[in-house]
Every structure is written in C-alpha cells, then in structure tokens.
Amino acid sequence: MTATPLYSTRSGRKLLSVAPMMDWTDRHCRYLHRLLSREALLYTEMVVADAAIHGKRDRLLGFDAAEHPVALQLGGSEPAKLAEATRIGNDFGYDEINLNVGCPSDRVQSGTFGACLMREPKLVADCIAAMKAASSVPVTVKCRIGVDDQDTEIALDDLAADVLAAGADAIWVHARKAWLKGLSPKENRDIPPLDYGRVYRLKAKYPDVFIGINGGVATLDEAQTHLAHVDGVMLGRAAYHNTALLGEVDERIYGAGATVTDWGAVRDAMMEHAADHIASGGRLGHVSRHMIGLFQGVDGARRYRQILSSDATRPGAGPEVIATAFDAVMPSLLAA
What we know:
There is one protein chain. The chain folds into 2 domains: 12-252, Aldolase class I (TIM Barrel); 263-335. Helices cover 43% and strands 15% of the residues. The chain has helices spanning 27-36, 49-54, 57-61, 79-92, 106-110, 121-133, 152-165, 185-188, 196-205, 220-226, 237-241, 249-252, 263-279, 284-288, 301-310, 320-327, 330-335, and strands at 15-18, 41-48, 70-75, 96-101, 139-147, 170-178, 210-214, 232-235. Strand 3, helix 4 and strand 4 form a beta-alpha-beta unit. The protein is globular and about 55 Å long.
C-alpha cells in the first residue's frame, strides 16, 4: 500500500499530533482533545499486541467516531502477533497503526519491545513488513534516536533504512536517547539531552519520507520552528497539562480561519460524554481527570481544578460537577 494523504510529503502539508501517553490518552482524553482541534492527529495509549488479540477489545480499542483522525499504537516484537493486532485495529477503523520502538519502561523491556528494539532494526523491519501486509491504513514507527551507548548517527540511520525498506509510511522520532538501565521512564523523558538536529539530519537524508519530531516541545511557537525542518510535530505533556493550546492548532498549524473556542460548547459536550459514560457503568472521574489541565493561567482556574479534583471523585458524582467547575472560569473566559 502507498501512503495515504495523511503522510504525503508532496502536498507540503504539515501535521501536529498528540503523543501516545500511557494512562493519559484514553478515549475520554481524546474526545476532549478533538473538541479543541478538528485536525490534530490523536494517538491511543500503547496497547500490547497480546492484549489487543486476547483482551477486552471494546474497552481497549473502542473509540468515538468523532475522534478521527486517530491512530492505534501497538507494542510488541513478534511479527505474527503484531500482524493480527494490526488487522484488529483496521477492523475497528483506526486511521493509522503505529509500532512503539521508544518506550523505556522496565515492563516493556521485559517483553522485549519498546526502546530496546532500537538494538534490533532487522526485527523491527520484520514486524513492520508483517503489519503492512495486514493493513489497509498507514503503518508507522515511533522511536528514539538511540539507546544507552549507541552512536545515534548509526542507530537511527540503521533503523530508518530497515523500516522504510519494509514499507513504513512514516517515522516519528523522540529526539532523545533512552537509557534502559539507571533511569526511570519519567527520568527518560527529561534527563537525556534533546538532539533535535539529529532528527533534522534524518529528514534531510529522506526528503520524500514523512519524518516527525517529538520530545520537549512545549508551545506552538516551538512546533512551528520545528516544522521548518521536519514534516510533523508531536506534542506530549504540553498538550495534556496545557490542553487549551490545542484550540489554536487548526489556525496556526493547518491554516484554518481564525476561530475562538466555544467553551460553553466544550463544557456541554463533555457533560454529555460523561453522562453517557456513567450510564454505561463508568465514573465521572474517568472523564474529568483529563480536563484538569484546560485553563492554565486563567482567573478561577485554581478553583476549577479543586472542584474537578475533589467533587468529581466522590461517589455518585454526576456531570453537573463539570458545570460547576466551568462556572469558576467562565467569567474570565467570556471577558477575554
């Protein structure tokens, strides 16, 4: 299969995506993010191939149609299992299937996948080839620039050459090494130095291939700077802890007309979404916890966060808690 327009470099269209983040980018988080940006590419949390095959698929893989474009990130290192999980992801209607070659957690290493696969580019290529054969949508890779004492010039080039030969449609690169021994997953997001230039050099080597960058991007100004060198930017913690910035993405990154976020509509949509979730047996906190980062620096935001952090977690809490929280910030938002 050839790359779809999602990853076409000929059009010159740039992409901004929200990174796959464990415990964060679940369906409720993505639903909120889609209310703020129609265009940003959204990613699931990483789903291990075995879980996709044998687990409760609706819970692990189900998503709202409003989330498109949305990509499924898979973890694994066995081509046959990844191919089966890819077929399942296709059946669910995902717009992309992504292979995790970047997560440094001990749990992932024990399963021989994630960042430790940077040491086995041929195996990663075999996985990509199997996934491509099972997919009608793009298959992509998210990796690091290297691990431990690897030479990043060699490690990243070797991985890129092999996965592209296997048919990968795009490569997203977290511009840091991962240290598999001695650093926690949290420390691996901060301590290894960023090397954006290494990702820029990969793009220069492959001008006709989509190369996206990830790691430490905190603002849309920074994102636009990177987009002068690469095809896409992936926001992680910035999109989660300062979620309102997604409301500017369509205009600033995609060239849409100037828009002002209708916060009343966002409130109402999230209340309806929460009501549906509660009616299906869920709890308000499953939804509201992703909303805490909405209003950084806005008058009333502290009270807003207090309400969502305390009232939303009480037994029997309903969608009206969201309305009460928004009441703390709406005067400031309407005056802006």
